[in-house]
Design a protein that fits this description.
With 153 residues, this protein is mainly alpha-helical. A hairpin with a 6-residue loop joins strand 1 and strand 2.
Length: 153
């Protein structure tokens, strides 16, 4: 009986394989096409990644080459742009009739930092650029009032 059951089992397995063979062929073809699509997508991602890195390197070089005295800060309203320059800082100070120390206290920075900005030896960070823009837009009356308030403290 053991021989019969082994033969019967082998025949059932053979028939099952025979019936499943066409379905498996279609699945194998689909898997092959999917794998080739995945490989193509990976190549595309690799190419785009290298393009992105190259673009980032170019922007870093462009930023390093561009003059630091032409930094732009967007206005909060988005309609106008504020462009920082050491000359603008000096003009603001002279228009207010303030000293460098008074301007530094108005902008809440050290006098040395302010002096370096005005000479073009250093460049203010974004946070300080926002304060400079605020002072430039507030007008001379408010600025003088704030300078007097800062001097009292």
């Amino acid at each position: 009986m053991n021989t019969f059951s082994n033969a019967f089992r082998a025949e059932v397995v053979r028939m099952a394989r025979k019936e499943l063979k066409p379905e498996l062929q279609g699945m194998r073809k689909a898997i092959t096409s999917h794998r080739s699509e995945i490989a193509a997508l990976k190549r595309e991602v690799k190419g785009l990644t290298s393009q992105l890195k190259a673009a980032q390197r170019q922007t870093k070089v462009a930023i390093a080459v561009s003059p630091p005295d032409q930094t732009k800060v967007s206005n909060r309203s988005g309609s106008d742009e504020f462009v920082f320059s050491p000359e603008l800082l000096a003009q603001m100070r002279h228009a207010l009739g303030a000293t460098q120390i008074e301007m530094a206290s108005l902008l809440t920075v050290s006098a040395l930092s302010y002096s370096r900005w005005e000479k073009g030896q250093a460049h203010p960070r974004t946070k300080q650029l926002a304060k400079i823009e605020e002072v430039a837009r507030m007008g001379p009356v408010k600025a003088k009032k704030k300078i007097r308030q800062a001097a009292k403290v």
